[in-house]
């Protein structure tokens, strides 16, 4: 399955710097507002040490990690919904994203210009959330107008949609994010085609200074508390340091991280939290041609997992042969796993587990 995250934030908070760091795509980054005009799009591999662990015991021609698409758009400013700055026309570029990465500046030192003249992360969060709510409000109003004529003609589906859209309008007009409200399954399904941004799960990314890499200072702590209160994910990373890491040869990165007192790049933490945010997990297929990581939702059954490889696999699923990465590390080979009776035959009702290694039997 394809996974995409959209980056939002004020100008000059480090959105493109962080985009560069996590994608190594070389998006333009500079010390002036609206540096990014056209959206930057990059695809980043999901770091997963289990791929190499599998490769230690299974010979293959290639290793294919899972991936995440990252979309970085132009910075928003206060009044963007009414045309200030570059307006909010670029928000359309992230409407199809699965989650929002809200980058917030949480460092004061240096000569980077802040569009508001001072560093205040919670003010910045409030500005962006208001602009996103106003953008969604415009979308909702247009769709209320669209279904109202049929609703007046007593079309039941149109009446249902109008009522849900009106409920969403009330939430947005109250200055709230749509994700802050509990929506019934049928309500959520009615809103889904509108691609509303404030309905998407959000992760706050605190761009910290190189003197606060753990994000323990006062500024990122305020963002962390807000994220926790609003059931959002939070990660602190230093865009400049992450950029330096990505410029190094792979073999030199561990030493650099150790010198900085870090266990891993911020990218690893960000991607893991993005997976948690979206309720995702990974399973693997492994053989002579390739070892590949596949992304599925937690709770997906074996046929749904097979369908990620090819839609026909879900339709014609017969059974799955399953073992875990832990089994492979213990028994050293698939043949030994089979001989030990640890290779399980699972049917259509089997709920996949993170780290499963599968062979699927597909009918015609």
Structure description:
- The protein is about 40% helix and about 20% strand.
- Mean pLDDT is about 90; it is low at about 25-35.
- It has helices at about 15-25, 50-55, 120-150, 155-175, 185-190, 220-230, 240-245, 250-260, 265-280, 300-310, 310-315, 325-330, 335-340, and strands at about 5-10, 40-45, 60-65, 65-70, 100-105, 200-210, 235, 280-285, 290-295, 315-325, 345, 355-360.
- The strands form 3 sheets. It has a 6-stranded mixed β-sheet with strand order 2-4-1-5-6-7, sandwiched between helices.
- The protein is α/β, with parallel strands linked by helices and about 375 residues long.
Principal-axes shape call: flat
Average pLDDT score:
88
Number of helices: 13
Q: How much helix is in the residues?
A: 25-40%
Cα(first) to Cα(last) distance is 23 Å
- By oligomeric state, this entry counts as single chain
Provide a brief overview of the structure.
This protein has helices spanning 15-23, 50-55, 121-152, 156-173, 185-191, 218-229, 239-247, 250-260, 266-278, 302-309, 311-315, 325-331, 334-339, and strands at 4-8, 40-45, 62-64, 67-72, 99-106, 202-208, 233-237, 280-286, 290-297, 317-324, 344-346, 356-362.
Highlighted features:
364 residues; alpha/beta; 6-stranded mixed sheet; 12 strands; flat
């Amino acid at each position: 399955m394809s996974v995409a995250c959209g980056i939002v934030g004020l100008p000059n908070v480090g959105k493109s710097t962080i985009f560069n760091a996590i994608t190594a795509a070389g998006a333009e980054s500079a010390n002036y507002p609206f540096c990014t005009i056209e959206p930057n799009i990059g695809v980043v591999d999901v770091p997963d040490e289990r791929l190499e662990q599998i490769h230690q015991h299974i010979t293959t021609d290639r290793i294919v990690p899972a991936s995440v698409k990252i979309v970085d758009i132009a910075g928003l400013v206060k009044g963007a919904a009414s045309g200030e700055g570059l307006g909010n026309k670029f928000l359309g570029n992230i409407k199809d994203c699965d989650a929002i990465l809200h980058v917030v500046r949480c460092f004061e030192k240096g000569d980077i210009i802040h569009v508001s003249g001072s560093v205040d992360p919670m003010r910045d969060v409030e500005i962006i959330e208001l602009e996103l709510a106003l953008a969604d409000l415009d979308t909702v109003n247009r769709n209320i107008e669209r279904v109202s004529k049929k609703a007046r003609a007593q079309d039941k589906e149109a009446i249902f949609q109008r009522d849900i859209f009106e409920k969403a309008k009330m939430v947005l007009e109250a200055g709230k994010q749509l994700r802050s409200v509990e929506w019934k399954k049928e309500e959520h399904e009615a809103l889904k085609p509108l691609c509303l941004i404030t309905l998407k799960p959000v992760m706050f990314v605190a761009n910290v200074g190189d003197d606060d890499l753990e994000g323990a200072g006062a500024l990122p702590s305020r963002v962390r508390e807000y994220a926790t209160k609003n059931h959002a994910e939070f990660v602190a990373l230093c865009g400049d340091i992450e950029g330096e890491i990505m410029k190094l040869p792979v073999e030199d990165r561990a030493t650099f991280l150790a010198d900085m007192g870090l266990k891993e790049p911020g990218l690893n933490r960000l991607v893991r939290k993005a997976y948690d945010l979206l309720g995702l997990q990974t399973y693997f297929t492994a053989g002579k041609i390739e070892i590949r990581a596949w992304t599925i939702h937690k709770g997906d059954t074996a046929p749904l997992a097979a369908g990620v490889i090819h839609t026909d696999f879900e339709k014609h699923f017969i059974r799955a042969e399953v073992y875990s990465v832990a089994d492979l590390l213990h028994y050293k080979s698939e043949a030994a796993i089979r001989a030990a009776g640890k290779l399980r035959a699972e049917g259509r009702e089997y709920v996949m587990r993170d780290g499963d290694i599968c062979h699927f039997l597909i009918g015609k």
